[in-house]
Specification:
The chain has 6 helices and no strands. It is an all-alpha fold. Helix 5 crosses helix 6.
């Protein structure tokens, strides 16, 4: 009973954070107090919901979510995303620093394709080599 209640609270917190600004994105004005509360508490609330999922899966109460997240196919993706996290700032500085012209915002799609997609592609290309050169090879080293 406690497990089910904690799952409901955790998922509710996470859904509230994800869908909390839906009205504002549709043009409905949200008062300053509620925007401040969202800004102050949204990361904590999402973290608490995620914490419950991790704790529940660790102690064997995760059910199908635990089975899904325990698949071995997630191991290389986890390594790749961690390497991408480590190197994305230098890659962003390199890729976006190559631009010599003035940046104008024309449309969302144009900005997304020219700025975001190119940085993500280069980041994960470099992360693949970074993981192969350092993370996997150092993971094979046996310490006495």
């Amino acid at each position: 009973l406690i497990n089910i209640a904690c799952w409901i609270v955790g998922l509710s917190l996470m859904l509230t954070v994800v869908l909390g600004l839906h009205d504002q994105s549709n043009g409905v004005y949200i008062p300053v107090f509620w925007r401040a509360m969202y800004s102050a508490l949204s990361r904590v609330a999402f973290g608490l919901g995620l914490t419950w999922i991790i704790i529940s899966c660790w102690y064997g109460y995760g059910g199908p979510i635990n089975k899904f997240m325990s698949w071995h196919i997630w191991v290389p993706f986890g390594r790749l995303t961690y390497c991408g996290y480590l190197i994305h700032i230098p890659v962003m500085m390199l890729v976006l620093g190559q631009s010599t012209d003035t940046v104008f915002f024309t449309t969302f799609l144009e900005a997304f394709i020219t700025r975001v997609v190119s940085v993500i592609a280069v980041t994960f290309l470099v992360a693949t080599f970074w993981s192969a050169l350092f993370e996997i090879s150092f993971g094979k080293v046996k310490f006495i």
